[in-house]
Amino acid sequence: MKQNAYIAGVGMTRFGKHLDRGLKSLTIEAVNQALTDAGLDAKDLQAAYMGNAAAGVIVGQVCVPGQMALREIGIGQIPVINVENACASASTAFNQACTMITSGLYDVVLATGAEKLFHSDKLKTFSVFSGAVDVENYDAVEQQIVARAEAAGMKVDMDGAGTKRSVFMDIYASMALEHMKKYGTTQAQFAAVSAKNSFHGSLNPRAQYQELLTVEQVLSAPEIAYPLTLPMCSPIGDGAAAVVLVSERKAREMGLSDPVKVASSVLRSGWDPQSEDEAGVTETCAMEAYEEAGVGPEDLSCIELHDASAPSELIYYEQLGLCNKGEGGRFVEEGHSKLGGRVPVNTSGGLLRKGHPIGATGIAQIVELTEQLQGRAKGRQVEGARIALAENGGGWINTDAAAVVVSILTK
């Protein structure tokens, strides 16, 4: 959808292992930062959207996580809408908040997302991801993973999927094998994504992991599900992020000196394609977002995308139109997605290094891109950044993501 909303303020916690903090504490930190950044008070908010996916499983907070967290800082009376949409929960909250402003219903809206994923019982954490597929047909999910791998000439061991690792790592591994078979992509090229994001993450004080990794170190790390090694898989994390959105009228009234405009934000769910050549949900969202914003992939200054695994990022290069199909490996190898390259991708460190508290991830992407467009990204600043894209997906049904949001921001 073509949007006409402006980002007045952003905030986020450092992502990581916050065993001593609750969902409420993390949310409050991010929201207070965003309000301060905007120069607004809680009483100025007219509505709030809260993204969260796992609170019911991990901390037992069901039904009202948004109201619970926001009441603590005096945010009540206004509509508070809880959004659960797998790993796209926060980006969906952002999309809906933008749409309400664009529709003229509100002038000031909060979009926030928070998650607690660390738990002493790892099975609880893994169950969150296992629940983001068709649980009534779970055997078919595993069968599809095995079939995809076998078609690429590999046999996979599903032992431990969902109990020792997220089942999504097996899904991503099968996608990687398929790409390797079809295009000749190498494991080292997937490792190059992780190494590149480790460099970006080393420059981000809010990233969960900040140490530098070489391609060789990524390749020699413990294997999770071939061809994925540990640094090729996004870690679980705790954290929160928030953004205050305002209408064009309110932006003028506030005299925003360096506003970031949400030019488009497209939300779609996946479907069953009729042919192998049919564009999937991510590609379709991207094409619509480009059209509504009046830009193309060649116009982008920087991108934050859903690198839940290293192969995901490489494949998204192609689906977002940064390069042709099958050229993702060469794209990262030649440095086009690194700071200083043609279009830096995941300057925050991405999910691989910044971390992936799933209910916060989508808005954390918006925080990074807003700071890039406003020249506030310090040591990882993209010079002259003017147009940015965020892509965030969640869940998996049959052969594609269950939900995807693509948003384009302009300076």
TrEMBL record:
Coiled-coil residues: none
Gene Ontology MF, one: acetyl-CoA C-acyltransferase activity
All residue ranges annotated as the Thiolase C-terminal domain in the record: 284-404
Protein name (database record): Thiolase family protein
Species the sequence originates in: Amphritea opalescens
One Pfam match: Thiolase_N
Residue ranges occupied by any Thiolase N-terminal domain in the UniProt entry: 6-198
